[in-house]
Amino acid sequence: MANNNRGLNGINPLSYLGVNPYSPPDLIVNKGAPTESNFKNIQLGALWLDNSNDLPTVSDIYMLVKIQNGVARWVSLGS
Q1: Domain of 55?
Q2: Of 47, 55, 60, 64, which residue is most buried, by most CB within 10 angstroms?
Q3: Count of the separate structural domains present in the chain
Q4: Rounded distance, CA 46 to CA 30, Å?
């Protein structure tokens, strides 16, 4: 049987036998868009909300998709 995140674990009889929960991505709320240097202690898939506008839109949401050679790649979820 394949071991996936929804499968049961519990090799030890006293271990947890429930479903392994999914971990939601990190959510960073900050004034201003993320830069190439905004990646320290942030995992891939993290979401960044630029709340510098009174009413943020989808264009103010970014996702961290790549970190390579000390440079972060953030992609806007808006158009």
Answers
A1: 27-76
A2: 64
A3: 1
A4: 13
